[in-house]
Specification:
By secondary structure, the chain is mainly α. The chain has 4 helices and no strands.
Length: 105
Amino acid sequence: MLAICTAAVRHDSTGLRNPQAANRRGVFVNASVLKIKLAMAIIGISSIALLRTFIEAGNLGSNRASFTESGVMWQVLIHITFVVSAIGIVFVDRVSDATTRSPAE
């Protein structure tokens, strides 16, 4: 992915290095985009683990249970924390983007 972005920045339609043109095309990756993508990846991994826990939740209270009720509760709370923090990251990014954008854009 980084190689594709670097190539797009180096070679625009005029053949010159022009990061602004790459940014207008949506190819340029900045820190806020990477933060959001990382948060979404963490939420995806947490969702898969939580789904596995919910599938095995039918065995709670038996000898075959690999999770306890408090373990399921903690997994849900951790997942909710990931989701809320991702929403917070997106909110802060949108607010900071709106305040740094000039009226001419």
